[in-house]
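Example protein was shown:

_____
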Amino acid sequence: MSFSEKLRVLRKEKGLSQEQLAEMVNVSRQAVSKWESEQAYPELDKLILLSDFFNISLDDLIKDKNPEDVAKNNDNSDSKEDDEETDEWLIVGGFIVGVAIGLITENFMWGTIGAFLGLGLGYILKGIKKV
């Protein structure tokens, strides 16, 4: 889907007229009309405003992709962030378990070994999840 088609779809999804969108990005209604009819292309600062307003990356806004693909990519990026956060907590949790082993056994060496094992297991599990 071209930029002009995407812009039209995104604008209509928000329930905006060309004039309302034009006011938001500080251009004329005719400019928006030209963008949607592929007669002109917005300047970079206007593209940035559009991408922020429609909550879409510049890459997804400009490149020929379907909006459904863009929505799927946005959903995937959220799950990737959640996975990374889970991995971080897994690594920290492994470290804490290792330190706890050292404190329970009252042995500095066991604590150090346990902490490193906890960290190592966290990284190993993180690597396994990526495969």
Remarks:
- DSSP finds seven helices and no strands in the chain.
- Helices lie at 3-13, 18-25, 29-36, 44-53, 58-62, 67-105, 108-130.
